[in-house]
Design a protein that fits this description.
The protein is mainly α. Helices cover about 65% and strands about 0% of the residues. The protein is built from 14 helices and two strands, in the order αααααββααααααααα.
């Protein structure tokens, strides 16, 4: 909104020229989202405690240390969503299709997560929505977003995938681009959801990945940088840096209250929305494969679940003491802060590796 209202005035007042810079507006989005989160969080936590009473249901088969967390409210992702949406609407170019598509995915996936959290609370059951119904809803939203993305992208990139490490290489998926795009968004949302199992564990890697893709979006949306780095130029995609910046601010604000011991949990409301948003940004910037590297921690957590389920069904034996992987280390006696900090370190390393793909061509 600031861009659309104030930047046209730069012809008369030179100071308004600042609103033409994506970097300036991204910084504004980070600070705005952080402030909004700090302002609304205390009231929202009190309101959610009052409404939920017993808090998020704790899995009976989970680590024993989790039972002391009973009574902690969930749906904390709402404060992130509110912060990101308001901040993005204030600082982004509202005529940009990519911004609206990213918001559509985030809000849509967030609503599915909200329904899941609501059912968990009302039924006093940690299962919530059935897996099939959840996937149908997520893939439905992903389908609509994928169609929009395909028509918003330039014709020579609309149905293509650009692999990292190679110059001038594109794979044309044709109409298979839609299921590919859907898979990236839904896969990312569920991967983040599986990682969100300990206080502060998921939110910091989310912020790290958002920072990486904020940079990627800026570089991809700048012709000179994209030409220098041999990455494909996507006109208008730099605006996605702003929503990534807003996500960083919201994540930091949420972390203040989610740091051990957590005063509130993110819930599916937040994890599905944030993961879906990152997946959508990856698709629109043509860096879907890089997302699997930068967000490698989420991939490892997901793979651990797949291995555990497959092994138990085929052999009747479990590979891990418990899945996802962070629970395995809990069962092995690692303290929660140790697991969280070590996983953060892994997330930082993987993010640096992912960013290196921008230069290694």
């Amino acid at each position: 909104m600031f861009y659309n209202l104030l930047f046209p005035l730069h012809a008369y007042i030179n100071a308004f020229n600042l609103f033409g810079y994506v970097t300036f507006r991204t910084g504004g989005a980070v600070i705005t989202s952080l402030v909004i989160c700090f302002v609304i969080a205390p009231r929202m936590i009190r309101w959610l405690k009052k409404k939920q009473k017993e808090g998020q249901p704790i899995r009976e088969d989970g680590p024993e240390t989790h039972f002391k967390k009973a009574g902690t409210p969930t749906m904390g992702g709402l404060m992130i969503l509110i912060s990101v949406v308001i901040s993005t609407l204030l600082w982004a170019d509202l005529s940009n299709a990519y911004v609206w598509l990213a918001l559509f995915v985030m809000i849509g996936f967030g609503l599915v997560g909200f329904a899941d959290d609501y059912l968990k609370l009302t039924k006093k059951n940690p299962k919530g929505l059935s897996g099939r119904l959840k996937l149908i809803a997520l893939f439905g939203i992903g389908f609509l977003a994928s169609l929009g993305i395909m028509f918003a992208l330039p014709d020579h990139l609309a149905t293509h995938v650009a692999p990292p490490f190679f110059k001038n290489v594109l794979f044309n998926l044709s109409w298979f681009f839609i299921p590919w795009s859907m898979l990236v968004m839904v896969g990312a949302s569920n991967a983040v959801n599986l990682t969100d199992g300990l206080d502060g564990l998921a939110i910091v890697p989310i912020a790290i990945v958002a920072a990486c893709f904020g940079l990627i979006a800026y570089l991809v949306g700048n012709f000179k940088f994209s030409e220098y780095l041999f990455i494909y130029f996507v006109p208008g995609s730099a605006e996605l840096s702003i929503i990534c910046g807003a996500l960083i601010g919201g994540a930091l604000g949420f972390l203040w209250y989610n740091a051990p011991p957590a005063a509130i949990f993110m819930g599916d409301t937040g994890s599905l929305a944030m993961g879906g948003l990152l997946g959508a940004v990856a698709v629109m910037t043509k860096h879907e494969i890089v997302l699997a590297i930068v967000g490698g921690l989420f991939v490892v957590e997901t793979v651990s679940v797949i291995i555990q389920v497959a092994s138990f069904k085929m052999t009747g034996k479990r590979v891990f003491a418990m899945a996802p992987l962070h629970h395995h280390f809990e069962k092995k006696g690692w303290s929660e802060p140790t697991i969280v900090i070590r996983f953060w370190i892994i997330a930082i390393i993987l993010a640096l590796v992912g960013l290196a793909t921008l230069k290694i061509r």
